[in-house]
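Appendix B. Chain record.
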Amino acid sequence: MNTIMVYDIETVPDVLQGRRLLKLETGSDLEVAEALVERRLTQTQGASSFLPHHLQQIVAISVVVATADWVKVWSLGDLDSDESEVITRFFEGIQRYTPNLVSWNGTGFDLPVLHYRSLLHGVMASRYWETGEQDVGFKWNNYLGRYHHRHTDLMEVLAGYQSRAYAPMDEIALMLNLPGKMGMHGSEVWEKYQARDLQNIRNYCETDVLNTYLIYLRFQYIRGFMDENRIKYEKERLKIYLLSTEKPHLLAFLKEWEAGELYE
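Structure tokens predicted for this chain:
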């Protein structure tokens, strides 16, 4: 079994770059963020307030890693880790294990943000950027190719790469009787970050990657890569792991997950 790494990032407005861009020497972080949003609304003629990728600061990266021997979910770094350290740990995992990456909208959001932020911090990631120059095996199957399997963006694949068919992860999770969003929503991350509540942001991100991992297992089943026995095995060992953590947010996810299974 190839190592699987499901990942998700949480971001907030990059206030430092915002101050430089807008030439704002005074004002609170909140005021700078609001100015960035106002600028975005002007640029898009009111169509979107969502900041562009290069103005997003990463505050959490959570992963589910599944190997032949174990499965685990956690957030990279600790509460005191800065953005550079968290991003470095993400790419170090790829450098060391060459996992198959799995995401929901990773191609459209998470990876471009990671690209810009690693450029900002000077994070080297030669394995990730490999496209065949050093390892010929990466020429036709690498992390950067949209249709390659070293990175599976479930949102894109399930939509047949048609943007009009994209669906929110939360709604697909609920469709499959999975817990979906728990504790908070992505729109609340900035507010939680302002309140220095990084722990709840990390907890929320971890439940997101758990949903994505379980959707991925179903995807592997419909494409014939896992049979019913294998799916049962993967689910059972994840349940055992979640129970062993004794972490309230993971136990809550497990409870909701098992309750949803009654409707399958």
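Further analysis of this model is presented in Appendix C.
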